[in-house]
Amino acid sequence: MIRHFFSWESRNLLAAPWKFQLTLLVGALLGSVITWIRWKKKSKKRN
Amino acid sequence: MNSKAREDGTGLTGKLEEDLALFQGKMERCSDVEYHKFTLQSGKQGYLIFIAGMTDDTRLQMEVIDPLSRMESEQDLSGTLKTAGNGGNAKDLSGSSSDAGQLRTEMELEQGLTGLCKGDTIAILDGCRKILLVSLSKWEQRSVEEPASEPVIRGARDGFTESLQTNTTLIRRRLATPDLKVESIQVGTLSKTDMELVYLDSVVMPGLVDEVKQRIQRIVIDTVLESGYIEELICDNPFSVFPQVINTERPDRAVSGIVEGKVVILVDNTPFVLVVPGLFVETLQASEDYYQNYIFSTMTRFLRLGLAIGALVFPSIYIALTTFHQEMIPASLLLSIAASREAVPFPALIEAILMEASFEGLREAGIRLPRPVGQAVSIVGALVIGQAAVQAGIVSATLVIVVSFTGIASFIFPIYSQGLAFRVMRFPMMLLAGSLGLYGIFLGLLVLLIHLVKLRSFGVPYLSPIIPLQAAGLKDVFVRFPWWSMKERPLQTGKANLRRMKGNMRPRPPKS
Amino acid sequence: MTQISKYEMFALLALFQLGTTLIFGFSSDAGRDAWIASGISTLFGAGLVLIYLFIFKATGGLTLVEWFPWIFGKWLGTPLAWLFPLLFIYNAARIISDVRFLFPVTILNRTPDWIIGFTFLGVVIYALLGGIEVIARLAGFFLPLIYISIMLEVTLLASSGTFHFANLLPVVGEGWGRIWKAVWPLGLMQTFGESIEFAIIWSYVGQKKGLALWTAGGTLLAGFSIALMDLLAVSGLGEMAFQQMMYPAFALLKLSNINYFDNLDAIGIIYLVVNAFIKMSVHLFSAAVCLRYLIGGKSEKPMVVTASLMALFVSMTMVISFTEHLQVAKQIIPYHVWVPMFLVLPGIVLLALPVRKWIAGLKT
Lengths: 47, 512, 364
Known about the structure:
The complex is a heterotrimer of chains A (47), B (512) and C (364). Helices cover 46% and strands 12% of the residues of chain B. Chain B is built from 17 helices and twelve strands. In chain B, helix 13 runs antiparallel to helix 14 (371-391). Chain B is elongated. In chain C, helix 3 (34-58) packs antiparallel against helix 9 and helix 4 (64-106) crosses helix 13. Chain C has a single domain (6-341), classed as Hydantoin permease (Orthogonal Bundle), CATH 1.10.4160. Chain C has helices at 6-18, 21-24, 34-58, 64-106, 113-128, 132-159, 177-193, 198-201, 211-237, 239-244, 248-255, 265-295, 301-316, 322-363. Chain C is mainly α and 364 residues long. Chains in contact: A-C, B-C. Chains B and C meet through helix 16 of B and helix 5, helix 6 and helix 12 of C. Chain C: Its main location: membrane.
């Protein structure tokens, strides 16, 4: 069912809210990786 | 310096015939240049060079040619010429040679030529390397008349003219104070147009004069034919349709700007002067508002604001309502609109754009057409658009009302250029209304508002004092407060010297 | 840095909290006592917003995203901080969906919803590229306008005899149970919990003195206006209709029938456009500021565009039916997302503040 692929679809949210929470968390973790890399680069530049 | 100039070939040689040839070479194929030979009593010869029509002939004869020919010895002239060249007072020279108003000497040929082109008379003498410039310029010019673009019922009838000097005088006569500064700037590599920045030193917005000067000095352009060139070259957002610089033909309006802490830019050869910074609310204020009864002026202002909004959205609302939201129209009105639209083959959007475009065309033609034809065309146009088109069933009668109302409404702006902006923006609004209905209209208005909020004129927010809100500034926006209560200058430009009158000026009956 | 005035922040906050609730109805689960529920929510909401402000001040003016790395360190704090921009983007996407569904249903019957979503987002991006200053100034201009039109609307409706205050009786007839249910968590979280985004906006306010007063004032103004609208909607429509209508306020506008105002839809559109515009701008701006801080960068502009496009994508893939969309807002999001993020996380931060101070004290 391609129509219910995304966890933020209302039907998915109604059926399984944890999927949305999981997506948020995974997204946050992925984002953090970017942040950590960028901050590392920045601190290197300062040194 | 003398010899250096000669070596460069930029100065005179001192031999009369060679120098004359130099001028004639430069002014080759300029048939308006006249060369007048004169001989001093000592037998020494010289030439007067001037442009016919730019010099006051009678004064030239009386104040230059006659004294020169009466001059007794060559020592007199060369001696005084020398003093002037060595930095002596020019008055010394005028005392002996002429009574001409302004005298100066130049070493460089190029500067002499510039002076010549601006109307000065040049005198050269055998054995002398200096160029004597006598300012006797005079040319035909329009007298001070009532401004055609901003007529009033109550108020001064004089308007700016094409002459820079006259314009400065018109301002100076209204502000008789040494505080009024008139700074001169020249722009244009070919036109060498004189411009003047006029402001009150103690009132002007801090930093404004420098900013204006900086922006004007940035300009490198060959000619400046009108102040519109300058307006477009110094404004903050060059991509905006709204006038960020106010232009006016009225001296009283310019002076009121100066008194509020603004800078007025006078440009030679145009009656339109620029007032910076220009704000949106000013384009809805007529100078007459301040001369008439304030209650009436307030009513007029509300009327103007309403009509301004009408000029912008009235046709769009007609389109949106008839196309998308018929249910919003009261039933009886809907019936009459539907009846009038019955025979019309076009959708409302096409119908309205057709009519608006032909109205704009009619108006444009009305300006361009030769006077005698204009009358005929406007009658034909009115008949064609007003009557025949409706009877032929091409447009509906309701739309004719809408279009003519809009047409009148777009004329209410005291500043003509703001009216132009609204006339332009009407068309995108109509397209939005035709595609997205009322939602489109609100979206369009929102975009316009965002644009206006972003806009600044010389650092002052364009919509101030409405956005950002300054409660004190609102005394002169929608409502025109009586003069005795407008004790302060507008905050955004008059910060340097806020107070403009003593408190408690309200007239009261004497206590008996 | 651009700065906004306290009045502009006040207007922004009030309009943000009015939001689309003005159209959708607030605490409608409490039936005819919705206005009581709204009032109670407002009081608690004001407290909640003041707690956010307290944390903001206690951290020395750090914005929302900076709280977590500051308190929990790099490794735990960063992922927690990342949750917020993602949620804000989701919230913005919900507003786009609201707009996409409301217009075709109410006034534009034949227009495809994606055109409406696109154009609306385009306008928001255009405004946001001018910075928070533009949004704040617009809010300062819109606020009086909205209140004038609310007053106009109420007067018109009242003069047409739409209100029947008997509909409100009996007050608290079915007990406090359903009132509390409406207050917690939806009433508190919707709008008031979302105001956590102002922990970012506050850092742009030039004069921070008296911020608490303006903030509380804005919240109370918005909250009590919502309560008033609920009161009027119930008295106009009756309890049953109020609960079943998707947009009670819109329905209310359609009730008026005074001479030449067959209905006041136009006012409804103004409410919706203005409030949705302000709310979405604040969502997207907050998301952009968070992203800029987390990814690193000088300007918010690319982040604004990124966040907007993400929100558009989420919105376009979000909704299958509008009833489900509303159901999510009422049953899922408040419990599963808003409570943990708007209440639990800031609560932990609040508790951790003295601990951190204590640790910092030990080190020195």
